[in-house]
Fold each of these.
Amino acid sequence: MVELKDYASPVRPTWCPGCGDFGVLNALKRALVEVELAPHEVVIYTGIGCGSKLPDYMRVNGFTSIHGRPIPIAQGAHLANHGLKAIVVAGDGDTYGEAGNHLIHALRRNADITIMVQNNRVYGLTKGQYSPTSPKGFPTKTSPPPEGAIDRPVNPITLALAAGATFIGRSWSGDMKHLIDMMVRAIRHKGAALLDIFQPCVTFNRNYSYDYYRPRVYKAEEEGYDPGHREAAWEKAHEWGDRIPIGVIYQVEGQPTYEDQVPTLKAGPLVEQEFRAWTEEEYKALEAEFI
Ligand code: SF4
Ligand code: MG
């Protein structure tokens, strides 16, 4: 039986008091206990950012990559051993900026990885530059007033829908019960799952605080929303303002994953398959073909 203490780490987070990353960390540990995955069965891949320090604060396998690269590294490692649960945890800059291209291709391939985005709508670690999800007009050091950010923000839900994602969810770090439930559903999904998490940065983005989200977010499925329809999801993805939907926005089940379709993996995880070194004759035949 997996218990919360199995994931306990003696390392204390260095996040600012009140940072939404605390909620993400606590929810993720509880979600993994709920799906009964032990630490040795999970790998968490992160990039660069405040939230990417998360695996340091859990007793779990972790791989901290460079900025924007946790998705391809998770896909590669998962091809080598798809017996391990692959979870990417990265920020909005990391995922929708530097990794924009990687995200699109992981989703269209239906790679069997779970991508959780700590979306605080700012670059926090590098001290407050505007990010791909910052709203137009957002004033920062790199987008000074009076104009603020002149870019239109990425809409993660429409982006994922257009890329062919089979699971798209949204939650926020101010509602632990909902966040744990959404993480559980994303982890259990077979195929690529994108979970966008509103995660307040209390230091560099006070516009999108707990007080901003609390009165606005609503649980779409509790109002009868059915996440099984692409057209309805597209419409739902555009709701913003006084009412912001959270929950599963789109899910289609039973689609083959990338790993299901790679012929070599049909015999089981690569790491469990027999390794055979080439013979000298085989090397010579290769040389003869190309040299
Ligand atoms: Fe969290 Fe923002 Fe502080 Fe980083 S700078 S730890 S994102 S509150
Ligand atoms: Mg960020």
Amino acid sequence: MIQIEALTYGYHGGIPLFEAFNWETQPGEAWAVLGPSGCGKTTLLYLIAGLRFPQAGRVLIDGNELKRPRPRSGLILQDYGLLPWASVRQNVALGLNVRRFYGPDGKHAPAEALPPANVDTWLKRLGIDAIAEKFPGQISGGQRQRTAIARTLALQPDLLLMDEPFSSLDAPTRESLQALTLEIKAEQNLSLVIVTHAIEEAAIMGRKILLLGQPPNRQAVVIDNPGSEHPAYRNSSEYLALCQQLRSRMEPARTMYATP
Ligand code: ADP
Ligand code: MG
């Protein structure tokens, strides 16, 4: 699905975040990208989304080198990106309306009819149909994130990219949204890449885990997590052991003051 070949990328004036970096995912896989703050997780997601481009190397999706954002890649950001003056229903319909106007290539209105809008289906599936007429300022953080997810799913993505989507939610809300995301991923046969700095979240969401460290990242460190597909994994000793392993392998963020 995603192929990253000899990727080099850094911001002006900084050390490269990625240097000749290779990584590959298969269709239908669930990946968590785990690493400390500042290691380049969001940047990697933007490169996969076609919002930034390699300084060297290539990013391919389904064998095609990315030159622009890809219509079937859905991106969900940490701060939801909802329009405050639009209702939940209008926010969920937003992407569809934009696509209807500009067409799937972002330039031309669609030549053939699009599939019927499935806004109501997604409002129900995310459990926000009862608050569809409310505005973002009137609903909880969990409901806002559900709205953002519904908006993205209404566009029928085959690849879901999520940047720390649950980090500002309380634990029970976070856990229920993690479970719901995995259910929908299986139902819709999506590929998933979820970026997180939280070890527990990576262990729950990632059937495979890409561990990033202090830049430059030169080699993909991949950890297999087959247990994540079993229900009740969160309560297993296997899960606890994995969290411990990840904790010991995750480099702490560089501190300003060197310890003697
Ligand atoms: P993460 O998501 O893992 O916290 P980011 O990909 O956001 O990391 O950022 C990686 C590094 O690149 C950080 O040191 C950050 O300060 C820097 N960085 C991010 N965006 C920019 C930018 N637009 N311009 C310059 N530096 C940036
Ligand atoms: Mg980030």
